[in-house]
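Saturday, quiet lab. Running sequence design on the structure tokens for the scaffold JK sent over.
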């Protein structure tokens, strides 16, 4: 995997471990700072606080859902015209644009709050007012990540607006990223045509490949963008440790690292064993 991705994954993993398992007391108190030790402490005092486990459970659920989504894909069968019997598959992942949509969306929404503070300092609070680093009114307030599930009861309009904007922008950035990064139907069809492969039953041509890919890539791009947007939004709303975007990015990095290691190990296996495992 990339060095930057691994550093980010390590940082988020550290946040998750400390936030869930830290048994040291929080500053100025005798209560453990970690969610799980804090919950155990509440049980021992006879005042169980089950809400302490919500972020931990949310983190685990997001982790499992992302791993499952990473395994979902559409596989287009390919054959090599010059080699009789040689076949392979071109996988199109459900999360086709990866985690980039939520990364870009989170960065953009964070900048809204940043600019709100700058405009307020200049005497033009056109994006809303900011107090102690938190937006308290205006557009910036409604585009700030909800702090907890309780916001659903206290300010459901904020949750609704933020959710619609976040998910909508995730879809938009997914579509833009696919085109910019060169993994759209046009670019992929050109790559496959240059490789000299063909889909069984169809002629090997760029036009034919593009017609086939147009049936899948635009759809999974929109669905994948909406999926990661909903997942990151839900993770932030439930207070998942490490943040929704952070957890998504970490799981994606770790899973791709696992795939790379598995692929290298697979290359050392006997051809019959690779065929048995479905890699040929």
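Result came back. Writing it out in full:
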């Amino acid at each position: 995997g990339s060095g930057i991705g691994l550093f980010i994954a390590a940082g988020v993993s550290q946040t998750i471990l400390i936030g869930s398992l830290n048994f040291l007391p929080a500053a100025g108190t005798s209560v453990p700072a970690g969610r799980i030790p804090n919950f155990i402490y509440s049980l021992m005092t006879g005042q169980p606080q089950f809400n302490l486990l919500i972020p931990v459970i949310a983190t685990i659920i997001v982790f499992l859902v992302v791993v499952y989504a990473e395994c979902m894909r559409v596989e287009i069968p390919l054959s090599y015209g010059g080699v009789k019997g040689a076949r392979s598959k071109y996988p199109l992942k459900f999360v086709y644009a990866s985690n980039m949509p939520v990364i870009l969306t989170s960065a953009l929404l964070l900048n809204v709050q940043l600019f709100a503070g700058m405009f307020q300092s200049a005497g033009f609070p056109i994006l809303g007012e900011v107090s102690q680093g938190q937006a308290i009114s205006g557009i910036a307030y409604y585009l700030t990540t909800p702090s907890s599930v309780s916001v659903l009861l206290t300010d459901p309009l904020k949750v609704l607006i933020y959710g619609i904007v976040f998910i909508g922008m995730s879809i938009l950035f997914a579509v833009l990223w696919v085109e910019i990064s060169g993994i759209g139907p046009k670019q992929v069809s050109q790559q496959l045509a240059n490789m000299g492969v063909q889909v069984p039953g169809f002629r090997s041509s760029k036009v034919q490949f593009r017609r086939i890919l147009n049936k899948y890539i635009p759809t999974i791009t929109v669905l994948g963008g909406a999926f990661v947007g909903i997942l990151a939004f839900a993770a932030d709303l439930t207070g998942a440790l490490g943040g929704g975007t952070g957890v998504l990015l970490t799981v994606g990095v770790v899973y791709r690292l696992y795939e790379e290691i598995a692929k290298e190990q697979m290359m050392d296996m006997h051809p019959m064993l690779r065929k048995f495992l479905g890699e040929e």
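Notes for JK: The CA atoms of residues 174 and 180 lie 10 Å apart. The first strand starts at residue 73 and ends at 80. Ask whether to fix the surface positions before the next round.
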